[in-house]
Each structure stands twice: as structure tokens, then as C-alpha cells.
Predict the 3D structure of the following.
Amino acid sequence: MAPIVPDAPAAGRPRWPTGVGNGIGSRHSPLPFSYTRRYARVVTMSTTPHVPAAHALTDVTGSDASLRRFLHGLPGVDAVGLEARAAALGTRSIKTTSKAYALDLAISMVDLTTLEGADTPGKVRALGAKAVHPDPTDRTAPATAAVCVYPDMVAVAKEAVAGSGVKVASVATAFPAGRASMAVKLADVREAVDAGADEVDMVIDRGAFLSGRYLKVFEEITAVKQACGDAARLKVIFETGELSTYDNIRRASWLAMLAGADFIKTSTGKVAVNATPANTLLMLQAVRDFRDRTGVQIGVKPAGGIRTAKDAVKFLVLVGETAGTDWLDPHWFRFGASSLLNDLLMQRQKLATGRYSGPDYVTVD
Amino acid sequence: MSERLSVFKTYKLYVGGKFPRSESGRVYEVTGSKDENWLANAPLSSRKDARDAVVAARKAFGGWSGATAYNRGQVLYRVAEMLEGRRSQFTREVADAEGLSKAKAAALVDLTVDRWVWYAGWTDKIAQIAGGANPVAGPFFNLSTPEPTGVVAVLAPQESSLLGLVSVLAPVIATGNTAVVVASERSPLPALSLGEVLATSDVPGGVVNVLSGRTAEIAPTLASHMDVNAVDLTGADPALATELEIAAADNLKRVLRPRTGEDFAATPGTERLTAFLETKTVWHTTGSLGASGSSY
């Protein structure tokens, strides 16, 4: 196996021509589970057989042992260096026109999220309206990328954003704990996809991952990917706050990418530690290296704990400097957030009018 | 014994219950009123410091305005207690800042302590004189109650560095508002030290935020800030006051214009207390009670 050097400087990396590796759906693992056959009738599936991906890493997922060997063979993370790098990139000063561009880009990358037990159809409709027109007083404000809701709210959300280009993302697989049988998880995914979800946010089984059963996690992701079919892009949530170490986050990133994730996502937003600049930087390195190895581009979504426009701009700097500007696009990078949008809009109003805005001039949600 | 090294005090801002330096890293030299002697360096606040102070004040508003008036009175009395304990420090600072003798400065500090006590007493009494039950011709209770306006930007008087400051600040927070204070540009040191007093009394962080620097630089940001609900222009000169009043019109801020020759040593009355109150009137059905009185 060729050594992977995730921290290699940007200048030394081979660049892929635009368009290469943007294809989604080149998946390689047939499902070994009997329950997928049980649900096979109702799952929307591609009529063409899945073609194994033509990259060098197909053999590592053959068995639990080879997968473990590969993941544990990834270079260890220099935690101090990683945090220092993330902090250093956070000091960059983004002003005037660059700031205006960054704010609009950040708004267009927001997955406007409501994941509360108290969600109502009315609240989801309001959220949808806000996603389509974030600032009703200024129609030049871009729409957000998506709204993110629980599966039972997908139909309502779909209706609320109809005709706007705003996507509907749904969490699934017994979010946020992920502690349910595979049948229940797949049923959850199926319900979301049938209701029209464009994107599915699944959680991995952290218990299985932490106890070293990597193939179980791998197979769960491939099964969910299969259930999503071509209808929905799959985001895989690691819950980085529960993975304990940076090494684990790097392993989880590669595991999910090998299993066919379209996006890797930091966290659910339901635990104490959510997206941090350091763990997002680590995942950005992983998607960069994965594309260099395989030609397949994977998106990244930090979620939870990003509340201010300043934080969001720092993340954009991380993206541009680490993964590259190809990722500075709502198709490849998202923010999972709710209160962030209001701060972005207030900063936008400040740029437009020259005076500081306040929470009275954006919607309450 | 060897000679001691002198220990100079680093004066800092008081924002959100903490003592930060100016975000800009700038300071300016503060000199005595009479002798032009250097006293200390004070932070030269930028508009971003003003923005941060407004965020802190807004965050503190819910808790402070929601506290009972009785509780606010106790907290303000505690400020007087803490100030009393630092009499000698403030006497020295006021004497340096305003070029007064020790005796005159001490008298001003005593007056300042008394001013806190005066306003501490008013917290749970202002509703009785500014509100009340209105007689109406229907089966309703009709009650007018004074409510705090919100975040108030206060430009402290330029001449009276401590007594004047407290005379404009205390009435604002006594009624449940939170304040962003721009200290006297020439003599900010007593105001910055007052931040230390407030931090060690029971005033929640963010209820009072003290900025020092050029009034003409900070004030326009506060006056045009959409999340500031009122401005007290006492410390602005007439030309600046006009400009600020225009900027404040954007979101219909409540504006208190500067008054010429205001004597802060005189008994203050309730005018400043009511300046930043809004009257809310509610109608409530009397239920089984008749319009003319009791049904039982």
C-alpha cells in the first residue's frame, strides 16, 4: 500500500482536472445482509448494477482484517500541529469585498436545521420560507442550501421549499443515538427518501466503531447508501465529540468515504463537543487525500456550535486552504446550523447599511 | 530593605463582566486636569468595542429587567457599600482628574455614594409614581406600568468624572435597563475604576459596560446601532449631539438631549429615572366583579 501523507503541502499535490471525480454513485460493495433483500421491493434502486469503483482502495474493504489494517495504517494525527494550524488559519483577516463574498457564500451553504422534539409543521414551514428568502427585506440575499428536519417533517418541508432549488435534508437511522436495529434504521431512511428527501444525514454506530468493528459500520453505511439510491445524497455523521481522538476521526472519515458517503459530517449538534476548526480541518484533509487517491470528491459538513459569521468565515478559510477552492461550493461544503444564519444576515445588513444591526431585524426561530 | 519598584495600574475596559483591553490594542495618555502630569494610559476604544459592549448589554437585559425591583434595589445598595470601602482610592482619582483638593474630592465621593443609595431606594417605588390603576367605564382593570426601554447608550458628562457619571448611570440601571457607558474622554480613570466596584458588587456582568476613548469616535456607532434602544447624550457637545440625534432617528431611539449647566450635586429628582421608561397599559377583565365594585 502506498503511504498516504494527509499533511502534504498544497503545492506538492497533483491537481485533478475539473469535473474528474465529481461523479456520485460509483459504488463497489454488494450488500451481504438478508434484511436488505427483505426491503428490496420498496427501496428505490438503480436498474444498472453497481460498478465497482476503479480506484486503488477497493481491496481494503474485502474483510474486517484488511479494513482494520488499512485504517490503523493511516498516519497518526499530530494533535498539537493540527490545532495550531486550525488556529493560525483562523486569524486571517477577511474584509470588504472578500467579506461580502464570504458572507453570501456562507449563507448559500447553510443547512437550516430544526431537530427538536417540539417541532411542528408550522415551524418547519416557517423555516422553509426563511431558507428560500433568508432576508425578506433584501431579496439579493441568497437562499440557503437546504433545510434539515426529522423524517416525519420531510413532506411539509418539501412543500415549503417547492420550486426554489432549496434542498430538503432529513436525518435518519435513529438520529441522534443510532441505537436501533438495522431494519429500523433502513425503514427510517426509506421513509425519508419516499417523502422526497434530497439528502439523508445518517449517524454511524459509534459503539461498533469504538469497539473496533469497522466492517459493521462499513456495511451499515453501504446499506443506507443503497437505500438512498440515486434519489438522495448521503451524509455520514461521525459524532466527533464521542470518538475521543483525532486518529479516530481520521479513521472514521476514510471508513465512510470508502463505504460510499457523499458527505462526511462532524456531529449531530446534540452532544457537548460539536464541530471545531481542528476536527473539520482533519476531515478536509481526508477528503482532499481521498480525491487524490481515487478521483472521487466527497463533501464536508461541520454541524453544531457554529453561531457567528466570524466562525463561519474561519471555516471557509480552512476549506480554501486545505481541501481547495473546488470545495467552496454549496454542493461540497455545508454548515449545519440554525442560529448562524441570523448572524450572517446581521453582518450582511451591516455591510449594506454601515450601521450595526440587531436581533430585532431578523426573524426569530 | 531595597527600594520598592513602583506598580502602575493598567486601566482596562469593563465589558460583559470582564476587563478586556481595547480590541484595537490602542491606548491614550490621560493627564491631570491642572498640571498636565501623566496619570495613566487608558484604553482607546474602537467601534468594535462598542459593538461587543452592546452585545453584552443585550445579553444581560433579560435577567436584569426580569429581576424584581426589590432585588435591583439591594444590588444597587451593595454598589454603594463597595464604593464606600474604596473611598480613599476614588478620592485620589477624582482629585487628580478634576484638579480638586483632597477635601473637595472626598466630598464628591461621599455625594456619589449617597447618589447610589438614593437610586437604590427608588427601584421599587418608581412604578407607583410613573404608573397606576386607571379608572375606566367598563368591567376592566386598567393598569399602566413603567417598563425598561432596553439597552441604553450613555455618554457620561465630560467635566464631572465620578459624580456626574453615577448621576447619569444609576437611574438607567435602577429601572431595569442595561447600559453602555462612554466615560469622560479627558478623565476616564474614575469611571474605569467604577467598573471594578461594579464587578465586586452583585451587579450581573453586562448590565453596565464602561468604554473609554474618544467620544466622537465611539458615539456615532452607538447612536446608529439598531440594537440600542435609547441614548443619553449628556456628554456630547452641541454639534455632536445634533449629529447623534439624527443617527438615532433610524430606529426611533429614545433620546435624552444634553442640558446646559446641569448641577450634579443638586438633588436629582425622578426625571432621569422616567426618561428611559416606557409605559405599558393593560386591560384586564374584572371577571365576576361589577364595574362599580365588588360583587360580594
